[in-house]
């Protein structure tokens, strides 16, 4: 049974010109203990979809889905209070800017303890012990001293460890990490990534890693799902997806990496991601796709669970002969 | 190197965006409409007022409003204790209120914003001196300070306006300084510096336009503050001197009449109320409209 | 031999007690790209500000075409100002939100040249075309453009005065990957066409490998390794450079090896700045600050560089 199941998620925002689609028809499945990487550039809707699944979408957004289930429970029909209990205890989230996500007025020890208190309780002495243990688990040295530090006294990397400690405090089944390392230095990034991988292994948590950085995601994810302009374009096992992408966008994205440059020019993708008001009704990627054919301009490809393309690529990186 | 065109749905200039946001707020629109009305009345006063505001009709002292039993149709809102038509005085009073508001706001704006700019820009000793001076002004209750200034300059409308402007300076100066300091840290200011912009251009052309949002709101609210303060000074006999038809002075002159002739007190009071309310509504609307709109759009 | 375009000699800049840049030297030749790489606290942004003449160095000298950059008379200072321009990291903050693109691009001309309005307008349109923007969009405001387009505007602005050197402070770090590639291609094209030199500040070694001719690696304000980019990145000699290269996740490989700990600021002047985190540190590293010395066609500041093999 899958831990997280999202079927046909659509999110739209009101604007003077009507409803603007931000996410359209997204399907996402995550099994227990699995590591899924959600990759996309800005405007792909990767963060928004997951926030909506946690019930944290902006109030102005219109969220609809055929199914939104977590651990068998239907999130769409769950009452507010029960949903709040679920998020936080079973689902936890770590965000991009650790220092900004922590309350500057309280010590980090207090904030981690708060996370425990909200969902479990126990005496304050017990909580302190657990907090110190958690801090050790996430690699914060001198936990007794750091317990009384304020977020601004710690570095970005340390604050991110604090956030992770808060997230795993109640042993969640699912940890969502939204660009957890984007604002950190390269060497610290590697540390945090290793920490997440290790915690995931040790606690058997499912990990949903959202990032714009496909190389980063590929280094720890078992499966990768690629989003573009609010739609899912491709998903599959990480190694296979990266070695032989089936969707032209994934291929173009990988080709745009600096290390894949042939000669002095980088393989840029011409054009830009369409804004919500300007999305083509047929294939979203078609205006920028080097393999586009006439049909791509008139027919919107459906998603077959693996790729959304009329002429998906084969192992050699060229489109297969015609779609059925 | 094909490039997709700039997003057309954001084609409006900041001003048009501002108007759209402002117009969505009914109360703010109402406020703006009332102010417009008052302005028109002020401009067309000689045409609208049935009588001269100074003309005394000895036969009709303290006549009640036109619709009451003893009232006269010639004086729809009644007359005061020396027979002057109240309606005409109110109409001409709009001129004075608008004038006071405009003069005070202009003066305090020009001086206050300049002080704030210099303070924020140059920092150091300039900042210290200017801000401490502002602190001194702020340390005293505004009305009392205004009274002190008028006491030094002598009573009169012009003196009252100067006093009220003086009292309004610190707010604008501090606001401008804070906005300037925020903008100075931003890259576009550094970019202008790299392009060779000198201090004057940086202050006026680069930074100031981006500080306008809080300044506009404060200036709008300052209008109503100015009218109230001038009215208070007038009420104390330190502002406009008789026979000038300034609303606050009208209130002062009719204090003792409140039981005998309620209309002489009520109508000027109502005029002040409506005007101040209108400015506050408009100012609130402007603040709401300016806050998110004139800033950069948030990333998706 | 002609003088290099820009030469830095032991430049240093302090902010209070912190030595943001602590004795860095390098040269940039005309038409070449020097990349400066480092993490937070390395001083790379401060170095960029020094080279862009935004702040004077506290110690050391910056020379442009063998001439001084400080203490110049007004006209000479203005002439120098035109030669060195800057592109900033944040495409959403580096353009004045209250000005149209035409005004933003015309400003450098209005300040520094005597071109009249028509001439300015023409040069603005020409520049917009050069960077791949539709000239019709000159009447639009920055918020109406995407991140990539704004960076193009920023580049256009930097080039309006026809500088010889452009300081680019993380110019593509805030852009999506597909747009990054577009903008980098543009920058490289412009470098060829206009004979520009770049001081390219970045934390991204993959990008740097692609664009840089020469490279300086900074750690806590000190240069730990510098030289020709290709050789340096293929065979890094300094332990920090090695760790930096190794830390980047790569396709087809699992988790990168770790460099533990965080930069410890406030290291004594007679110590190696990196030794608290270095697996090769010995007593000498704590007691004697390594100086840059030639090794295998580059300069490296490490006592034990030969032993890394």
Please characterize this protein's 3D structure.
The complex is a heterotrimer of chains A (324), B (300) and C (309). Chain A is α/β, with parallel strands linked by helices and 324 residues long. Chain A contains twelve helices and eleven strands. Chain A has helices spanning 46-53, 80-89, 98-101, 108-119, 124-137, 143-147, 156-168, 186-203, 214-220, 238-243, 248-255, 294-298; strands at residues 2-15, 18-31, 35-39, 62-64, 67-70, 73-74, 91-94, 174-178, 206-211, 223-228, 231-237. A six-stranded mixed beta sheet of chain A has the order 7-8-9-3-10-11, with helices on both faces. In chain A, strands 1, 2, 4, 5 and 6 form a five-stranded antiparallel beta sheet that branches. Chain B has 300 residues and is an all-alpha fold. Chain B is built from twelve helices and no strands. Chain C folds into two domains: 6-234, Rossmann fold; 236-309, no CATH class. In chain C, helix 3 crosses helix 4, helix 4 (117-130) packs across helix 5 and helix 5 (147-159) runs parallel beside helix 6 (177-194). The longest helix of chain C is centred in the middle third of the chain and has 18 residues, at 177-194.
Topology:
The complex is a heterotrimer of chains A (324), B (300) and C (309).
Chain A: E1 2-15, E2 18-31, E3 35-39, H1 46-53, E4 62-64, E5 67-70, E6 73-74, H2 80-89, E7 91-94, H3 98-101, H4 108-119, H5 124-137, H6 143-147, H7 156-168, E8 174-178, H8 186-203, E9 206-211, H9 214-220, E10 223-228, E11 231-237, H10 238-243, H11 248-255, H12 294-298
Helix pairs in contact in A: 4-5, 4-7, 5-7, 7-8
Chain B: H1 14-23, H2 26-43, H3 45-48, H4 86-122, H5 124-139, H6 142-153, H7 157-184, H8 187-194, H9 199-207, H10 212-235, H11 247-253, H12 262-293
Helix pairs in contact in B: 1-12, 2-4, 2-12, 4-5, 4-7, 4-10, 5-7, 6-7, 7-10, 10-11, 10-12, 11-12
Chain C: E1 6-15, E2 18-28, E3 33-37, H1 44-51, E4 59-64, E5 67-68, H2 74-83, E6 84-87, H3 101-112, H4 117-130, H5 147-159, E7 165-169, H6 177-194, E8 197-202, H7 205-211, E9 214-219, E10 222-228, H8 229-234, H9 239-247, H10 283-287, E11 293-295, E12 298-300, H11 305-308
